Automatic annotation (TrEMBL):
Record pathway: Amino-acid degradation; L-threonine degradation via oxydo-reductase pathway; glycine from L-threonine: step 1/2
Domain of life: Eukaryota
Domain named NAD-dependent epimerase/dehydratase: residues: 50-285
Catalyzed chemical reaction(s): L-threonine + NAD(+) = (2S)-2-amino-3-oxobutanoate + NADH + H(+)
Function field: Catalyzes the NAD(+)-dependent oxidation of L-threonine to 2-amino-3-ketobutyrate, mediating L-threonine catabolism.
Protein name from the UniProt record: L-threonine 3-dehydrogenase, mitochondrial
Family recorded in the similarity comment: Belongs to the NAD(P)-dependent epimerase/dehydratase family.
Record InterPro entries: Epimerase_deHydtase, NAD(P)-bd_dom_sf, NAD(P)_epim/dehydratase
Amino acid sequence: MASGLSMTFFRRLSNVSLPPTTLTRMTPAGAKITCSRSRGYQDFPDAPRVLITGSLGQLGIGLAKVMRERYGRENVIMSDINKPARHILENGPFLFADVLDLRGLRELVVNYEIDCLVHFSALLSAIGEQNIPLAMQVNIEGVHNVLEVAKQFGLKLFIPSTIGAFGPDSPRNPTPDVTIQRPRTIYGVSKVHAELMGEYYHHRFGLDFRSLRYPGVISADTMPGGGTTDYAQMIFHDALTTKQHDCYLRPDTRLPMMFIDDVLRATVDFLETGSDKLSMRTYNVTAMSFTPEEIAEEVKKYVPDLEVTYQPDHRQAIADQWPEVFDDCNARQDWGWKHRYDLPTMCETMMNALVPQYNQSNNAVDAIKE
């Protein structure tokens, strides 16, 4: 079933002629594409063409960069409803795409010979709770549209899920792949809906649907956006500017986390894994679990006089419903997932990335422990 359909992921593209558009940076038809692959597509000479929706977020920008290095710059098309920065346009193809416009999505898939659809468009947890009708529209209707497009054109479809797909009735330490979920945020409910609809389309229509439940994601490339796990990014910026961090969670709130490089590598490895190796369609994936107090102690190794205060707000109630520790043994067993970053190596990497940025802008604190 899915293994047969997955052949569409490797459609021959050497003679595809792309329609002109002022929003893209496309090479002429027949331009030579050079791809380096460490694993996955060795048996197939052609690179897949990938469309990423909602690609201007933290994960979309990073995944586009990784995929372009593997499959070729012009084979990975970013899309969003927002205007991209100049450097985004200069780094590869970008298109306007509204996931609520089913006809528009179909046209993009046909006109640009898409093989794989990565669907990042969504309103996240804290933001979704502030605008439930819009979250339902984007997170549920948008999923229906990409499912239909993927089914119609035989695409491989990846829709990420989240720790927010679990609720207060779920086992929290550890949280297995298959268990009671019952989330109590619209974001979590919509992600469970996406998981179940994707599995239904897989079993009913043979759709090659895949999903990873991401934990909190930490990155030096983007500023935190106020999400429930974003304190784990903000503490680095606060340490390097004011040396004062006000955390909106209790110091003992344990949550699963991953550094973004691990997240992106897990996503690509998962997409490149043959369907015959997958025992399920939705997997937990993680690297570490820590509390605000634990990450603060690690950051203090670099900024010893960092002061941290704790003033829990509405996000504490959300975090209290989420897993403390993810059980991702199935991902490790089925397709060889293995993280590279733990808490100390993640903190070291974040500091190495952020200190030069703040020094360049003259906003870094004077005392950074070498």
